[in-house]
């Protein structure tokens, strides 16, 4: 039996490269392809590897080559075909993205690590990692037997159906365990975030309140200062007006006092004239003299009260009232005497 060209030992799970047909151990060729990312070629002839095929050795040491493609065509599962088609499309898109990158000639510093200064190590890109990862999945999938693939698909289908059924049940694993735990975790993180926000925002709010109060205090101080200055200037400007108003009020009061005095004197004169004329009709001279003495005393009392305005008014009113009462009493006496004494007759 031949040895593996890579490990130089007997074949362990022999695998052949297509289309060149060189045989290697499955682990050796897999490690080769995974290690040399940019060398998806045969280790011996440097021919591009399209796919890997398992080789089964019989008792007669004849190489029986089983084509995976023919076995796959015999498998009529639609889900498997869809799964394989998705991987093929992904592989095609990755190759197309790689071609576009090469055409655009993008700078390698965007896709490589800046700290990787070793030129001997191969450079990696994200698209190439995805490409080799999918290629590895394809290889592992092709290495599986049909029964294993069916079991995997059946397990995926069964797991999906169980997950769907559990999500629809109110007492299932999702609603009974996962969602309560997630609710607790969400509440914990919500409380934690709220506490952190409160810790950071509360001092800011206090600072904002302090600044606003300081601004309001400064504004009130400035406003009060300007108002005081304005009020003082306005008061100073109103002093001449106040003086003029005081002089005018004083002059009007003097005029009013003079007019009141004149009117009171006129009233007094008129009353005196009327009283004097009424005395002419009195017969008794003693009563006339008594009335004149009373009138003189009242007149002297009124004259002594004239220096002040209020006193003048009060005394004038009192005098007027007394004088009216006196005239009224005098008229009553005159009427009484006229009733008891006959009227004098004129001799012819």
From TrEMBL:
Residues 4-46 form the RING-type domain. The chain crosses the membrane at residues 146-165, 177-200, 207-226, 232-252, 264-282. The keyword Transmembrane helix applies. It comes from the Eukaryota. Pfam families: zf-RING_2 (PF13639). Keywords: Membrane, Metal-binding, Transmembrane, Transmembrane helix, Zinc, Zinc-finger. GO terms for molecular function: zinc ion binding. This is RING-type domain-containing protein. It comes from Lottia gigantea (Giant owl limpet).
């Amino acid at each position: 039996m031949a040895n593996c060209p890579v490990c130089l030992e007997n074949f362990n799970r022999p695998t052949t490269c297509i289309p060149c047909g060189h045989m290697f151990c499955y682990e050796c060729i897999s490690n080769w392809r995974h290690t040399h990312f940019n060398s998806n070629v045969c280790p011996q002839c440097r021919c591009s590897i399209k796919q890997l095929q398992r080789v089964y050795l019989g008792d007669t040491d004849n190489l029986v080559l089983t084509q995976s493609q023919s076995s796959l065509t015999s498998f009529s599962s639609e889900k498997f075909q869809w799964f394989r088609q998705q991987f093929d499309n992904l592989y095609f898109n990755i190759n197309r993205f790689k071609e576009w990158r090469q055409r655009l000639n993008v700078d390698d510093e965007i896709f490589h690590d800046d700290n990787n200064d070793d030129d001997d190590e191969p450079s990696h890109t994200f698209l190439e990692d995805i490409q080799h990862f999918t290629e590895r999945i394809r290889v592992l999938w092709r290495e599986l037997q049909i029964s294993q693939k069916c079991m995997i698909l059946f397990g995926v289908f069964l797991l999906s159906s169980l997950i769907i059924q559990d999500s629809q049940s109110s007492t299932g694993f999702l609603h009974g365990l996962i969602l309560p735990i997630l609710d607790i975790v969400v509440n914990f993180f919500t409380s934690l975030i709220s506490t952190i926000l409160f810790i950071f925002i509360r001092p800011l709010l206090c600072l904002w309140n302090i600044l606003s109060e300081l601004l309001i205090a400064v504004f009130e101080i400035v406003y009060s200062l300007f108002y005081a200055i304005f009020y003082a200037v306005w008061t100073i400007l109103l002093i001449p007006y106040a003086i003029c108003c005081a002089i005018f009020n004083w002059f009007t009061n003097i005029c009013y006092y003079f007019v009141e005095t004149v009117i009171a004197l006129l009233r007094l004169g008129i009353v005196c004239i009327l009283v004097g004329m009424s005395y002419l009709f009195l017969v008794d001279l003693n009563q006339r003299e008594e009335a004149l003495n009373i009138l003189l005393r009242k007149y002297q009392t009124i004259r002594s009260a004239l220096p002040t305005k209020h006193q003048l008014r009060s005394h004038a009113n009192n005098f007027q009232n007394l004088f009216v009462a006196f005239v009224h009493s005098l008229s009553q006496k005159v009427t009484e005497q006229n009733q008891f004494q006959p009227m004098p007759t004129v001799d012819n």
